[in-house]
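Exercise 7. Predict the joint structure of the components listed below.
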Amino acid sequence: SAVISQKPSRDICQRGTSLTIQCQVDSQVTMMFWYRQQPGQSLTLIATANQGSEATYESGFVIDKFPISRPNLTFSTLTVSNMSPEDSSIYLCSVVISGRSQETQYFGPGTRLLVL
Amino acid sequence: AQRVTQPEKLLSVFKGAPVELKCNYSYSGSPELFWYVQYSRQRLQLLLRHISRESIKGFTADLNKGETSFHLKKPFAQEEDSAMYYCALLPGGGYNKLIFGAGTRLAVHP
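Solution:
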């Protein structure tokens, strides 16, 4: 398994500002993802954080709005830029760990963001 | 299109009653299906996956390719089963990205 921590755990921000969320994993992982969970909604994949190269964004998400860094195999950041109330969500970091015969995806505790 | 459908937002049962949380998927290939669970104030965690064919906390789920379903079942619900349950699909061809359903909240009453 993997121990995943996120900072901050929650924040209240003003519209127009930016917030950077950190994700730290206790082991080196190849695959790391960022998800968003809007109120009352399911999880939506924002992007795959690639170590040493630009993140791969899903449809509807762009780098200017959600810049992602992945400087090494244990750490990543997601920035929510120029925030609006519609960005109020839980943001989750997730990693894939390879076991003996299968791969399992683990999730961080999430960062709860409220934009006023 | 790849899609996971959980038709029930809320399932409310009494302790000891059978539980079935429905999940249907849309995918043309051979997917892997998972159930994830999120207990109150805890992070999302894997409950079970179809290829393991295991029972976890009394829950089982069988992949029915004909009906494209992966319903989660438990014969006797317990209060501690109350949680949010998400069905997820992993398209075939190596690990890619999980596609989640909208989730079903299970409430087990005493």
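Discussion. Chain A has one domain: 4-98.
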